[in-house]
Amino acid sequence: MFNKVVLVGNLTRDIELRYLQNGSAVGKSAIAVTRKYNSNGEKKEETCFIDIDFWGKTAEIANQYLHKGSKVLIEGRLKLDQWQDQNGQNRSKHSIYVESMEMLGTPQNSQNGGNFGNQNSNFGGGNFNSQNNFNGYGSNQGYNGHNSNNNQNFNQNRNSGSNFGYSNQNNNKTNFSNNTPQKDDVQEEKIPDIDVNADIDEELPF
C-alpha cells in the first residue's frame, strides 16, 4: 500500500534528541501545518499539529539547525504508535516518520551561526534524508571544493590540450613541407624538338 506524506510548516518546539542503545539517534518534535481558505467570503485558517520523528543522521542535523518556529518541508510516512501509560491504559497516536526534509528560510546554528550563513549563501537550501545522503548545510564546502578542482583541471586540460594539438598541427605541417620536393631537387625531363615541316619518312626521335 502507498503511504507517503508531504508537509510544509513550522516546528512547534525544539528537537528532543536522544540515542538508542544501538547508537541510533532519534529526534522528536511537532510541526504546525496551516491551511487558509475562504468561507462565505471570510478568510479563515485551519492549523493541524502533527508529531514528527527524525532518525539517524537526519535527527542530528535537525537538532543542530532546526529550532522552534523553523520552517521545514518534510517527506515521510504515517505510522501508528501504541503504548501503555502508567495506569496500564492502552494509548495510541499517529505521527510522521520523516524520511527526508528540506530546510526552508534561514536556519540557525547555535554553535556556528556566523559561518553557517556564509555556507548557506554559497550553496542554498539543504536536503537531508534518513539514509545519510544529504547535500547542503555543512557539506557544501566540500561540494564547492570539488567543483573548483574539476573546473581547474578542466581549464588546465583544455588549455594544455589545445596548445598541444596546435603544436602537433604545426609540426605536421612542417614535416609535410620538408617532404615536399624543392624546385632545385626536381630534374626536368627535356622534351625533344620536333620539326613539323620535316619529311614523313624521316625517323622520328621517339
From TrEMBL:
<keyword id="KW-0234">DNA repair</keyword>
<comment type="subunit">
    <text>Homotetramer.</text>
</comment>
<dbReference type="GO" id="GO:0009295">
    <property type="term" value="C:nucleoid"/>
</dbReference>
<dbReference type="GO" id="GO:0006310">
    <property type="term" value="P:DNA recombination"/>
</dbReference>
<feature type="compositionally biased region" description="Acidic residues">
    <location>
        <begin position="196"/>
        <end position="206"/>
    </location>
</feature>
<dbReference type="GO" id="GO:0006260">
    <property type="term" value="P:DNA replication"/>
</dbReference>
<keyword id="KW-0235">DNA replication</keyword>
<dbReference type="Pfam" id="PF00436">
    <property type="entry name" value="SSB"/>
</dbReference>
<keyword id="KW-0238">DNA-binding</keyword>
<dbReference type="GO" id="GO:0003697">
    <property type="term" value="F:single-stranded DNA binding"/>
</dbReference>
<dbReference type="GO" id="GO:0006281">
    <property type="term" value="P:DNA repair"/>
</dbReference>
<feature type="region of interest" description="Disordered">
    <location>
        <begin position="105"/>
        <end position="206"/>
    </location>
</feature>
<feature type="compositionally biased region" description="Basic and acidic residues">
    <location>
        <begin position="182"/>
        <end position="193"/>
    </location>
</feature>
<protein>
    <recommendedName>
        <fullName>Single-stranded DNA-binding protein</fullName>
    </recommendedName>
</protein>
<comment type="function">
    <text>Plays an important role in DNA replication, recombination and repair. Binds to ssDNA and to an array of partner proteins to recruit them to their sites of action during DNA metabolism.</text>
</comment>
<feature type="compositionally biased region" description="Low complexity">
    <location>
        <begin position="108"/>
        <end position="179"/>
    </location>
</feature>
<dbReference type="InterPro" id="IPR000424">
    <property type="entry name" value="Primosome_PriB/ssb"/>
</dbReference>
<keyword id="KW-0233">DNA recombination</keyword>
<feature type="short sequence motif" description="Important for interaction with partner proteins">
    <location>
        <begin position="201"/>
        <end position="206"/>
    </location>
</feature>
<keyword id="KW-0227">DNA damage</keyword>
<dbReference type="InterPro" id="IPR011344">
    <property type="entry name" value="ssDNA-bd"/>
</dbReference>
<dbReference type="InterPro" id="IPR012340">
    <property type="entry name" value="NA-bd_OB-fold"/>
</dbReference>
